[in-house]
Amino acid sequence: MPLAVGLRASVRVVVSESDTAAALGSGDVPVLGTPRLLALAEAATVAAVAPQLALGDTTVGTSVTMEHRRPSPVGSGLVIEAELTEVDGPRLVFSFIARRADSSAPAEAPGADEDVAGAGTIERVVVTRERFLARAAAHQPGAR
After folding, report:
1. Residue 28 and residue 54: Cα distance in Å, rounded?
2. I need a surface site. Which of 50, 57, 87, 138 has the fewest CB within 10 A?
3. According to the model, what pLDDT value does residue 142 have?
4. Domain coverage including residue 47
5. What SS3 state is found at 45?
6. In whole angstroms, what is the distance from residue 95 CA to residue 36 CA?
7. How far apart are CA 121 and CA 45, in angstroms?
């Protein structure tokens, strides 16, 4: 199956001490850190398309727009869902939403927004892994 709009994946997590802003250096509070939310959203985007990629291909992130709307304390569960919303050659655009894992309210239900921890878009580009790594190595200090 080719890469097509509508591919989806989700990631589930229970917030641990190592996921907190305090542990990540992005703040001093014991709630899910924004960098960790972004990493989880990226993991969901990768999972959405990885099975459809050609052998030797991968995706790399190029752009992110994200809102971190609600705190998620240690011990709370989250589900981060990503959906491929645009395919433009090698450029892929995803939307994602992170919700409390125990939420059973449909997204359009009154009060459902209270369950949203974060949301946004992530752009990734399909690359040939070997060629990408060779170019990255060529840009290292001291490389010729």
Report:
1. 42
2. 138
3. 76
4. 8-138
5. helix
6. 17
7. 10
Q: Is residue 2 included in any domain, yes or no?
A: no
Scanning the structure block, which residue is given the tokens 């924004």? 34
Q: Establish if 3 belongs to a structural domain.
A: no
Question: Distance between CA 24 and CA 46 in Å, rounded?
Answer: 22
How far apart are alpha carbons 85 and 32 in whole angstroms? 26
The residue assigned the tokens 């892929």 is: 92
0.70 surpassed by pTM: yes
Determine, yes or no, domain membership for 74. yes
Total domains present in the chain: 1
What is the pLDDT, as a whole number, of residue 114? 77
Buried b (16+ CB within 10 A) or exposed e, 108-131: eeeeeeebbbbbbbbbbbbbeeee
In three-state secondary structure terms, 66 is: strand
N-term to C-term CA, the chain? 40
- Cα–Cα distances (Å) from 121 to 40, 107, 111, 112, 116, in that order, read 13, 17, 22, 20, 15
14 within 8 A of 75, measured Cβ to Cβ: yes
